[in-house]
From TrEMBL:
Similarity field: Belongs to the DegT/DnrJ/EryC1 family. L-glutamine:2-deoxy-scyllo-inosose/scyllo-inosose aminotransferase subfamily.
Organism listed in the record: Streptomyces macrosporus
Pfam family, one: DegT_DnrJ_EryC1
Alphabetical list of SUPFAM superfamilies matching this protein: PLP-dependent transferases
InterPro entries: DegT/StrS_aminotransferase, PyrdxlP-dep_Trfase, PyrdxlP-dep_Trfase_major, PyrdxlP-dep_Trfase_small
A Gene Ontology molecular function term of the record: transaminase activity
Entry keyword set: Aminotransferase, Pyridoxal phosphate, Transferase
Residue stretches spanning the membrane: none
Cofactor(s) of this protein: pyridoxal 5'-phosphate
Name used for this protein in its record: DegT/DnrJ/EryC1/StrS family aminotransferase
């Protein structure tokens, strides 16, 4: 099976884990702090504004909790997002309000967001689809002008660049997922950035039970009666650990290698599929933008998309569509909404395998199978 994603881990990561085993310190400790500092340097932000967590989903929930969102508040997010963002909003008691996206980039513009703002809007969550930064600079500026908190779901854009800056550093808070499908993986894990210093302190406290000070050995060295608890507000345990942080440090060093190979694969797909008239390939990036190539997507007539995916699966190629429109999910209470760009894209888009483990021959195989399926399905159904 040629998989959509595949983690790239090897001897370096295994050696780093062995060192943690030898240290006998497996939990949240020095390697966690080192990984946070390394990621802060990558992002161009202070290390103490970065938190290593047990998942990106935990980061989204923590963003909503740290901001104190709740009943009567609204949070705007694109319908084409991962469901964790909507879940985090709903659990808080706030209301998710879905905006439309461009049907080609699957990213929202400021106009899309502005169209659904109300006096109750407290925050905006933006996903960088497939690693494309989108109009994040304008969105960040407009949100700041209006006093609306901007949360960047940067799970797709680790390795992307916009005007010399990293996506995730432009908003007020940001979250990255490091699960096994992501460009940089720790198996499970996540990162969070908080711009405001006081909010960063609060987020870190909430991520570990709400404790002002941990009650372990480190605090024992600086405090009398270190076992006594100070819990000004209730939190949960969302922190990462040194085992997974050690993997993350190696993966972060390998990030340029990962993104370079993804770029080569995307270029090869473009070359192999350039003359397939029935397919639309990802649009060109604006000047100053670089993508992580987290997704490589194609778009075709809605009448054949599902059948093409089934043909590829039968031939040993796993494709999918990410992300299914959230405004169509009854749980979120917005099924009455009509979002033309989102609905157009969701019926026509297919994400192809892209990860550094693919060989050039794998990519050519996927492209050839796709060409064959599109041609046969087009003839069969008389579309095009």
């Amino acid at each position: 099976m040629i998989n959509l994603f595949q983690p790239q881990v090897g001897e370096e990561e295994l050696s780093a884990v062995a060192e943690v085993f030898d240290s006998k310190w497996l939990g949240h400790g020095p390697r966690t702090k080192a990984f946070e500092a390394e990621f802060g340097e990558h992002l161009g932000v202070p290390a103490d504004h970065v938190l290593f967590l047990n998942s990106g989903t935990s980061g989204l929930f923590l963003c909503v909790e740290a901001l104190g969102l709740g009943e009567g508040d609204e949070v705007v997010l694109p319908s084409m997002s991962f469901l964790a963002a909507a879940n985090a909003v709903v659990v808080s008691g706030a209301r998710p309000v879905f905006c439309d996206v461009d049907s080609r980039t699957m990213n929202p513009s400021w106009r899309d967001i502005e169209a659904v703002l109300t006096p109750r809007t407290r925050a905006v969550i933006v996903l960088h689809y497939g690693g494309y930064p989108g109009e994040i600079v304008e969105i960040a500026e407009r949100c700041r002008e209006r006093g609306i908190t901007l949360i960047e779901d940067a799970a797709c854009s680790l390795g992307s660049v916009v005007d010399g800056r990293r996506p995730g550093s432009l908003g007020d808070l940001a979250v990255w997922s490091l699960d096994a499908a992501k460009i940089l993986t720790t198996g499970d894990g996540g990162l969070m950035y908080v711009r405001d210093p006081e909010l960063a302190v609060r987020a870190r406290r909430l991520a570990y039970h709400g404790l002002v000070h941990p009650s372990g050995l480190g605090y024992a060295r600086v405090s009398h009666r270190w076992w006594e608890l100070q819990v000004p507000e209730v939190g949960r345990r969302l922190i990462g650990n040194d085992l997974t942080a050690a993997i993350g440090s190696i993966q972060l060093r390998r990030l340029p290698e990962f993104t370079a190979r993804r770029g080569e694969i995307a270029a090869l797909y473009r070359h192999e599929l350039a003359d397939v008239e029935e397919l639309l390939l990802p649009p060109p990036l604006p000047a100053g933008h670089e993508t992580s190539h987290y997704f490589f997507w194609v778009q075709m007539d809605a009448g054949i998309r599902d059948e093409v995916a089934a043909d590829l699966l039968a031939a040993g190629v796993y494709t999918t569509f990410r992300y299914a429109p959230l405004h169509k999910v009854p749980t979120y209470g917005e099924t009455h909404r009509v979002l033309p760009g989102t609905e157009h894209a969701s019926g026509r888009t297919l994400c192809l395998p892209i990860h550094p483990g693919l060989t050039d021959d794998d990519v050519r195989t996927v492209a050839a199978l796709l060409r064959e399926s599109v041609a046969s399905r087009t003839r069969l159904l008389g579309v095009g």
